[in-house]
From TrEMBL:
Repeat is among the record's keywords: yes
Gnk2-homologous domain location: 10-115, 120-220
Lineage, broadest ranks: Eukaryota, Viridiplantae, Streptophyta, Embryophyta, Tracheophyta
Native organism: Aquilegia coerulea
Protein name per the record: Gnk2-homologous domain-containing protein
Keyword terms, alphabetized: Repeat, Secreted, Signal
Amino acid sequence: MYSINSIPVCILSFTLLLHCVIGADPLYHICSSNSLNYTSGSPFDNNLNILFNQLNVKVEDTVHGLALCRGDISNADCKSCVNSASKEIKNVCPNNKAAIIWYDNCLLKYSDVNFFGTIDTQNKFYLYNTQNVNDTTFNGSVQELLSDLSAIASQSPRLFATGETSLLQGLVQCTRDLSSSQCKKCLDDAITELPSCCDGKRGGRVVGGSCNFRYELYPFFNL
């Protein structure tokens, strides 16, 4: 069983229990304040639809968007995830001018404010296995693996890295609008949250708008 915590508290002040985390369902989403709504059929709405249909084309002035697929999945799975995210984000955040949604295989975010090249420190949540590991050295092993992967990912063109030890598998990734140094800072800051997120847990994730990490005791990424 996995549990989910959101950060900051002002966005969501309770904890949800997830009985099953499936790749086909969103992991989480965050909508902007209700005061930042747009009107259906408005130019913003039209531009948002254009953005979802063609995320690699810049839409000036009004809508800024980013899609990121997990670095180990296929192009077909990536496309499928982004298509699902672009439909679901409008359902769960109707008429919001800024929103973000996460799936196992991808992230999608948009805003009326240009966020490219800036570490997102606002949108973040935790996922963790509710079962504990009875080993006083476990936390240190997790941190060591993730820190090593942070250094590797920040120097990779894809800002993505996976790795394993005899006990653990780990994955880290940054959105590709960040620089190498920004990616490392984002991941290192996320890793410092291990005691709050996943202290002694058999698996866990810190998932943010600019970077994320995951570790498990079982294989979960594609080699």
